[in-house]
Amino acid sequence: MRAIAVIAISFLSLAFCAEAANKPLREFELQAKSPKFWDLIDANAKLTSVATDFGFTEGPVWDPAGFLYVSDEEQNKIYRVFPDGRKEDVIALGDPDGSTFDRKQHLIDCASVLRAVIDVKPGGQYTVLADRFEGHRFNSPNDVVVGPDGALYFTDPTSDLPKGDKQEIPFQGVYRLGSDSDVRLLVKDMSQPNGLAFSPDGKRLYVDDSEQKNIRVFDFLPDGSVSNGRIFGDENEPGGVPDGMRMDDAGNMYVTGPKGIWVWNPQGEHIGTIVVPEQPANLAWGDNDYATLYITAGKSVYKIRTKAHGFMPNLK
């Protein structure tokens, strides 16, 4: 029965991606739920299309050289995307997902088909950093961030488990991957953990759950463990689920959700939404000042300037 359930979840995930990518475009809009929203986003800010004609975009990472790495889950590639819309192939890879730079500025990707976290080389090769926990293969690593201690932290739902593959770990976990290749389980009681981010002070780890449609927050401890998990916020509305997330340097959260990017302040108040024409899956800070949000949504990549500056844990 578990194998049937996993196949069903994977099918639903692909169906959701396809549906999101093919829906009629919405009108861009800035919806403030609190005046605090305008402290972060100018009321006259515009959303710009950077590039389109992808299959399904994910995993954006800004490179200081002046381009964005973008995963395409349907075309099975990672691209370099330049501000003028030009695209270059980096690597052909089955269902690449969330990505980050580590402290050495290596591109780290969650490779769903490989069921692994990998280090992608500029020339298109890759090295598997981890693909097992206690001898069992991961489900389908989804998103990854650098922690305050320099370790990698990633989620492992079943949402992209390749069709026909067996689920070997009977839960959907959140893990720590140390520089010594040690894999440590941090959380095992979430339904479909997805996006994750650390607070700028390094004291809290946020993880969203795409099935429960909420965001949880944990106290982060000096030994790399977490405690006191609790609900930070809910996104239980039609039109999308929580997925990728990023923080600004003041501790505000920007997370995909129904209709676009939901902005939360550190107190857990949803202060506004950036409505995006296509349903977003992930986002990243970019440009020289890290004050531009690049948004991967459906078949496209968009950007919007903000008054905020992104928190970049790989640069700490």
Write the CATH architecture name. Answer: 6 Propeller
> What amount of the residues lies in strands?
over 45%
Give the overall pLDDT as a whole number.
Answer: 93
Order of helices and strands: HEEEEEEEEEEEEEEEEEEEEEEEEEEE
In words, what does this structure look like?
There is one protein chain. The chain is mainly β and 316 residues long. It is 7% helix and 46% strand. Strand 7 (96-101) and strand 8 form a beta hairpin. It is globular and about 55 Å long. Residues 1-16 have low confidence and may be disordered.
Brief sketch in words of this structure:
By secondary structure, this protein is mainly beta. The protein is built from one helix and 27 strands.
Strand and helix map with partners:
Elements: H1 2-22, E1 29-32, E2 47-51, E3 57-63, E4 67-72, E5 77-81, E6 87-92, E7 96-101, E8 107-111, E9 116-120, E10 126-130, E11 132-133, E12 136-137, E13 144-146, E14 152-156, E15 172-177, E16 183-190, E17 193-198, E18 204-209, E19 214-220, E20 226-234, E21 245-247, E22 253-257, E23 260-264, E24 270-275, E25 280-286, E26 292-297, E27 300-305
Antiparallel strand pairs: 1-24, 2-27, 3-4, 4-5, 5-6, 7-8, 8-9, 9-10, 11-12, 13-14, 14-15, 15-16, 17-18, 18-19, 19-20, 21-22, 22-23, 23-24, 25-26, 26-27
